[in-house]
Amino acid sequence: MRPDTPAETVDHTAEAARLERTAGLYPEDSEALLLRAAAHLELAGDRPTATALYDRLLSSTDGLDNPHLVRALKASNLWEYGHEAEARAIIEGVRVASPRDPAPWVIVAEALESHDELEAAHDTFTEAVRLLLTDVPQPPQPTHPLLFGRHRVRRMLGKSHDEWDALADTVHSLPITLDELHDPKRVWSLGSENPVELEAEITRLRAELGAYREALSRPFPVAILHWPATELSELLEAYPTLASEYPSHETHLATIESALRELSSSGTPNLGIVTGTVPSYEAFAASELSSPGDATLLPQYATTLAARGRAVAWPPQSTAACWCGSGQPYGACHGRTA
What we know:
Blueprint: H1 12-25, H2 30-43, H3 47-58, H4 67-80, H5 84-97, H6 102-114, H7 118-133, H8 144-157, H9 163-171, H10 178-181, H11 185-189, H12 195-216, E1 222-226, H13 229-238, H14 249-265, E2 271-275, H15 278-287, H16 297-307, E3 312-313
Parallel strand pairs: 1-2
Antiparallel strand pairs: 2-3
């Protein structure tokens, strides 16, 4: 399903079935594809089948990239159709595990919030913020929902601003302030007969909806293909015709960084890097009825990986690990300025 497909025209059950079939074709991406399938099943109202998909993932013999995320989604889904005790137990397990990924924290905190467990939601948001953002100079984009969620719950609880709320204000980019967006009295204004109040509330809701659409409907990134050293050696040994594309691994890495910087300076948004493997590339070439030695397949392969959610956003933060796999911070590796 494309991000711009109108929600009312989507057959969620059929889309879930399509994603399950695709997961069978691409087992290396089955986690991401089955999570999307489960989301469609939830939207279709088939929550028990969605739970079965979450259980299928959690019982998989292959290690999951983010098991805490799967558990958090399962808990949120269970609570929606009456399995509150089991959901609470899973949520507590996620909190005890203290994952370093913000997504599971957001999901369990919002599950508590949606069921009017505001104090528990506040404690969960706060625990996550302290764990992930203490002594962090600039909050990464994925942690922003933690700050915004905590701010929202504190407004509903009538708590005064603290240093984390101030930080949430600094990363908030919409023209309407967080205090306005999270004002509990907004709900009351929807019942007003005053056209001015209604128009103001519609403006606020449009701004909030725009933020959600921006977060959920980003286009696939413009992705550059990266080969780790061992994969590139194997690729060139098997397909020497590609040597003209990759004179050396060092040149390959430098070309990636320079290409991304050039795209960025030209105003191209949403840039990313996808990492290739020889078996995956060979399978892609076979699906295209072409030879892996055909260099014209390389950009198509990169686009396909990005469309399957395999892209990592570029540039990383200067203190984050460099995309090249050196283990050094990006700022001390390929992020160094000329």
